[in-house]
Amino acid sequence: MVIALNGSHLYGNLRPFALEEPRALGGGRMIAGSWPPRSLAKLGPGGTPPPLPAASPAPGNDSQCGEQILSYGNVEKVVIGAVLSLITLLTVAGNCLVVISVCFVKKLRQPSNYLIVSLALADLSVALAVMPFVSVTDLIGGEWIFGRLFCNVFIAMDVMCCTASIMTLCVISIDRYLGITRPLTYPVRQNGKCMAKMILCVWLLSASITIPPLFGWAQNVNDEKVCLISQDFGYTIYSTAVAFYIPMSVMLFMYYQIYKAAKRSAAKHKFAGFPRPEEMEGISMNGVIKLHKESEECTNFSRLLKNDKKNISIFKREQKAATTLGIIVGAFTVCWLPFFLLSTARPFICGTACSCIPLWVERTFLWLGYANSLINPFIYAFFNRDLRTTYRNLLQCRYRNINRKLSAAGMHEALKLAEKPEFVLRSSDFSREKES
């Protein structure tokens, strides 16, 4: 016989037995087998148990879900706790580095980097306000122990912070697209006030998703042991569309547009004075004519290289933006798509009262989504030399003269570019290969 301890009255009557023989309760959610001998002393005269009041539905938005709580051994708890703690600590450390770098390094205090700070703050909020409670809940098998009132607060923080992170990634993709396609007009409009308004809109829109469950549109699934976001059909479609599907569609579209711009830019890098093998076929020249011809071609190529430095810089920026945004979109999709597909399908599969999805599946997809907050700072550092240099100096406790070091690194990079004309040759060859 299995008795589910979801009703508050039933749980209250069985509490003395649970305190005396906790192992009989099977982790606090299920009671399996027969009563142990010591517990029989609690029975009434004649060996018959006293009558128990029938379990009545708890008021409010209780779900009476009978989900089985997972039971872990000591080794499993240590492994799970170590992994989840490592993810949380690395997320905090990485996003703190981003905030400190942009706020305290003068060269990084640019309007375009304000969005990266907003993203880091959103990811930092996930690590500080959400991950610890989810970690504790997972360590004890998925049982919610923080109370009904805090359940609503926790869900609101979780939804708002994760949505702000996702939507900031969407706005960053739009910002990169406008910077590439409108290099002359967009930077003029890209000032601090404009970025502050965009960031404010992101956070307000993220907060709007958390409001309906707090004001009665869709009640969260919230009983003594379960804390789950509302499974209302309309709210599920609205929240998942605004928090994920629309931002993902915008990011994919922006990436496609930047990729096309980079491809067009690569096709434009053709140098009329550069020697082409097909032009030399069928022409016989002696050594003196060949030497003279090569000298003229080298002079012509140097002049073209000097005049085309600006186009080369634009070409590099477009290629870098396409690569960076491609990795960001790919990582974002891999991390969050499984969770949101599950969240969208769950009410249609399980109904609106409970979740019938195995708990380990839900938690795996949830932490995969949280991992996106961990990898965002490292993706930007990998493709941004200034952030990389600042990270290295901060981690090595070299706080002095960071701005001077960044300027020196920029000059060194410019000199390396000037000394390597083969970059232009490769871009020209790449364009010809595309045409053939």
From TrEMBL:
<feature type="transmembrane region" description="Helical">
    <location>
        <begin position="365"/>
        <end position="383"/>
    </location>
</feature>
<dbReference type="InterPro" id="IPR001069">
    <property type="entry name" value="5HT_7_rcpt"/>
</dbReference>
<dbReference type="GO" id="GO:0006939">
    <property type="term" value="P:smooth muscle contraction"/>
</dbReference>
<dbReference type="GO" id="GO:0004993">
    <property type="term" value="F:G protein-coupled serotonin receptor activity"/>
</dbReference>
<feature type="transmembrane region" description="Helical">
    <location>
        <begin position="195"/>
        <end position="215"/>
    </location>
</feature>
<keyword id="KW-0807">Transducer</keyword>
<feature type="transmembrane region" description="Helical">
    <location>
        <begin position="235"/>
        <end position="256"/>
    </location>
</feature>
<feature type="transmembrane region" description="Helical">
    <location>
        <begin position="154"/>
        <end position="174"/>
    </location>
</feature>
<comment type="function">
    <text>G-protein coupled receptor for 5-hydroxytryptamine (serotonin), a biogenic hormone that functions as a neurotransmitter, a hormone and a mitogen. Ligand binding causes a conformation change that triggers signaling via guanine nucleotide-binding proteins (G proteins) and modulates the activity of downstream effectors. HTR7 is coupled to G(s) G alpha proteins and mediates activation of adenylate cyclase activity.</text>
</comment>
<feature type="transmembrane region" description="Helical">
    <location>
        <begin position="325"/>
        <end position="345"/>
    </location>
</feature>
<dbReference type="InterPro" id="IPR017452">
    <property type="entry name" value="GPCR_Rhodpsn_7TM"/>
</dbReference>
<dbReference type="GO" id="GO:0005886">
    <property type="term" value="C:plasma membrane"/>
</dbReference>
<dbReference type="GO" id="GO:0007268">
    <property type="term" value="P:chemical synaptic transmission"/>
</dbReference>
<keyword id="KW-0297">G-protein coupled receptor</keyword>
<keyword id="KW-0472">Membrane</keyword>
<feature type="domain" description="G-protein coupled receptors family 1 profile">
    <location>
        <begin position="94"/>
        <end position="380"/>
    </location>
</feature>
<feature type="transmembrane region" description="Helical">
    <location>
        <begin position="114"/>
        <end position="134"/>
    </location>
</feature>
<comment type="similarity">
    <text>Belongs to the G-protein coupled receptor 1 family.</text>
</comment>
<dbReference type="Pfam" id="PF00001">
    <property type="entry name" value="7tm_1"/>
</dbReference>
<keyword id="KW-0325">Glycoprotein</keyword>
<keyword id="KW-1015">Disulfide bond</keyword>
<keyword id="KW-0564">Palmitate</keyword>
<feature type="transmembrane region" description="Helical">
    <location>
        <begin position="78"/>
        <end position="102"/>
    </location>
</feature>
<dbReference type="InterPro" id="IPR000276">
    <property type="entry name" value="GPCR_Rhodpsn"/>
</dbReference>
<feature type="region of interest" description="Disordered">
    <location>
        <begin position="42"/>
        <end position="62"/>
    </location>
</feature>
<keyword id="KW-0675">Receptor</keyword>
<keyword id="KW-1003">Cell membrane</keyword>
<dbReference type="GO" id="GO:0042310">
    <property type="term" value="P:vasoconstriction"/>
</dbReference>
<keyword id="KW-1133">Transmembrane helix</keyword>
<protein>
    <recommendedName>
        <fullName>5-hydroxytryptamine receptor 7</fullName>
    </recommendedName>
</protein>
<keyword id="KW-0449">Lipoprotein</keyword>
<dbReference type="GO" id="GO:0007623">
    <property type="term" value="P:circadian rhythm"/>
</dbReference>
<feature type="compositionally biased region" description="Pro residues">
    <location>
        <begin position="47"/>
        <end position="56"/>
    </location>
</feature>
<keyword id="KW-0812">Transmembrane</keyword>
<dbReference type="GO" id="GO:0045202">
    <property type="term" value="C:synapse"/>
</dbReference>
